[in-house]
Predict the 3D structure of the following.
Amino acid sequence: MPRIVAARVIVTCPGRNFVTLRIETADGVHGLGDATLNGRELAVASYLSDHLIPCLIGRDAHQIEDAWQYFYRGAYWRRGPVGMAAIAAIDTALWDIKAKIAGLPLYQLLGGASRTEVMVYGHANGKTIEETIDQARSYIEQGYKAVRLQSAVPGLSSTYGVSKDRLFYEPADADIPTETVWSTPAYLRSVPALFEAARDKLGWAVHLLHDVHHRLTPIEAGRLGKDLEASRLFWLEDATPAENQAAFRLIRAHTTTPLAVGEVFNSIWDCKQLIEEQLIDYIRTTVVHAGGITHLRKVAALADLYNVRTGCHGATDLSPVTMAAALHFDLSVPNFGIQEYMRHTAETDAVFPHHYRFAGGCMHPGEAAGLGVDIDEAAAATFPYRRAYLPVSRLEDGSMFNW
Ligand code: CS2
Ligand code: MG
């Protein structure tokens, strides 16, 4: 049996922080898992190094499900973003090892390919509606079939999803959280015009998406969904904070605009009601934040029973290890919807050489054994950790709000 003899956590910051777990077996096969939690990276690094790795050494690397159950039930304190990201990293690394030993690309161990390629969406954003649409046009020219649109809200000094840099959007931008100001009325006035103009300029063939990023009340979300119905969005994401899953009943009662939720979820329990009551259309849970491939497959299987499709999160704060694992999952899962793809920087790609490729609006994980991604530890060491927080958001009267 492939006994685990070593495991270590690699923290690197090629433009942004990433936390990677590397597990090695007695016969020299190694696997990688992403453990990055944006703004709280060192918490997961410690959870792995100080608490889980001592229990990993000596285990049979083939026993993936048992490892998952051991670290989930064995913690006593279950669920939560830190612990589940740590479990996710172990799970992903063990799947990488198992596939390498089998000499197969991971998707072959997940049931084989259910499609030839994975449709992805890119992020178009701008300071004006025109700038946003121009950037969307450039994505369409690159072959993207789906584009997310985020435009600056007039009157606000900054808006979620609108980057300073043209292509790489990284919100974790300061070593003490940046304070941003939010106005829901101004936002609600601006979004319908963005999508009316987008359909007018870009036509109806391209899938258009939008991320509300947890900013509305349920009734405001119902109103926005109704206002956007004529623009036929592919999805409206994170319309309202989802701790109260029942809140989506109200949104569902007011609009047929498809709803996507789940990037901040870390277990099936966070989305069980949303799925079983068909309150959403896409589940956004990801490999790195929802307990790894083993748990994500269970979320997808539940979703499949209720006509909910996958739409895995794929922002720049999820490392190329997650991107690779997600693409193997996406290629195989029966109820695939779409995959988010925010390109990493060249320095990140240099630290994480990988086989996945983009072409014609779609991606494929490649045919290398395992995940098809590695980490160049010498390159990683040249980018030391640098504390960086996501911003916080306040209303104009100073009340704390949702970023
Ligand atoms: C966003 C994320 O891509 C998305 O849908 O919600 O970029 C999110 O803001 C970041 O992952 C937070 O770290
Ligand atoms: Mg989002």
Summary: The first helix runs from residue 41 to 56. The CA atoms of residues 12 and 380 lie 5 Å apart.
